[in-house]
Amino acid sequence: MNGPFDDYLSALSQPLVGVLPGPLVRRIEDEAQSHLEAIQESLEFGGMPSDEAVRVAMTTFGDPGVVAKQHLAVYLAGSRRGTWLARLGWRNASTFVAVGQASFLALALVTLRVVWPSESPISAGVGRAVLHMKAPFSFTLADGHPTSVALLALMALAPFLIGAVVGRLSPYDAASTIMVCCLGASAVTTLVGFQTWPNPEPLILALTQAVYWGPCGAIVAHLVSRLHWRRSSASHRLKEPDSKPVPTSPA
Fold this sequence. Notes:
This protein has two domains: 6-81, no CATH class; 89-230, no CATH class. The protein is mostly helical and 251 residues long. It contains ten helices and no strands.
């Protein structure tokens, strides 16, 4: 790939590299380049300047991100793993699982800390009155208990772990999905917080999910996804026969 459509083809392959098989990505690039060149030649034959013909050809062919998503949707729908992924979406599924696991573990730590003094942890805390007796209002996150330390560590590290996992697995637009999932998890945790009041930990966790996990996880996912794409794209270029070094990402 070495010509006036390099940037367009790079943007087209960005969400596909590392998700679709390498030969399929190269075939999509080749077919797109052939169509673009055909449109360009047709416009130039009609008297349009070359630079203008290139621009109009790319506009006519469509936004590269939209075209890439169409190819990805077709691949997922036609692959063995694509029946449910095409409906739910690999990005949505991976984000939901990552955020859900982190939230579940955090709430489990809160619950474990609340029922820890009980001789019967399974039944303790079923009723609100029992819950309040086991964990009075004076109970705080920073009390030095092992579960409190683990909870604080999880609350601090979760967005980085979520962003790294989702950014690696999601082909595109992982950041916005993480924000939505974190807000949803925050809403669920808030409901739990109302049930466990006056213990403030679930409400603190809910606030953390909304204002820290979401934005921070989105940033990390974007950076990891971009880095993964650059590495995959570089490997993809090296595997192309008779190819010259070209920029691995659009400017």
